[in-house]
Amino acid sequence: xxxxxxxxxxxxxxxxxxxxxxxxxxxxxxxxxxxxxxxxxxxxxxxxxxxxxxxxxxxxxxxxxxxxxxxxxxxxxxxxxxxxxxxxxxxxxxxxxxxxxxxxxxxxxxxxxxxxxxxxxxxxxxxxxxxxxxxxxxxxxxxxxxxxxxxxxxxxxxxxxxxxxxxxxxxxxxxxxxxxxxxxxxxxxxxxxxxxxxxxxxxxxxxxxxxxxxxxxxxxxxxxxxxxxxxxxxxxxxxxxxxxxxxxxxxxxxxxxxxxxxxxxxxxxxxxxxxxxxxxxx
Length: 282
Hints:
CATH superfamily: P-loop containing nucleotide triphosphate hydrolases
Oligomer: single chain
CATH architecture: 3-Layer(aba) Sandwich
Distance between the termini: 36 Å
Strand content: 5-15%
């Protein structure tokens, strides 16, 4: 059985896609074809289930299309594997085990799902029991900047961003104020609530300041490789390449002030829990 040896659990909008892309280049690492399996949050956070089901369909279809469109002989084994993910009884332990059944022998396996950082203690016990004491990576980003990034993403998805912003200028601030009230905005970056749940795994959890991705990407990747027990002698040639380039629109001062006030508890928590030096790099 090749269940995950490590997880990257978040935070959302904190470089998890960058890490996923880099680790897929490592010859000793195996990750599922789709980023974000969302198994444990589907089971333990029922309010997520509707959009997780949509996410699974969309990402599996995307991977299937890649196989079909790839020049040369069709990889029927890969097609069958993806088909089984969708046609088996989903979101059970055996289904999750099947996803990792394609991992090559001897490779270190992992999964990257940012919402896992928001799991409760019961869900974490489920991970520990099924995956037998894996390691965890938790990327910590500045609360205001992380929330602003998520806020824009949410608004793009629900159509409000195109209404609120014209020619890269805000024309309707009220739409930002309305969207910031969505429960996911505060939940995804609620470090003071969720970090203590993972602190119990001393030696098996690695907290990373988000700024290290930009300032020292290759050194950071070597640290991650060492942490998950794979070779550090890999040339991550695209480590400095930004994965998701944002719109470049600066946060309006009034929105910044509102988020700063809303997230003051998180800023204080990070400083007290990780220290001023860590906080300076998030």
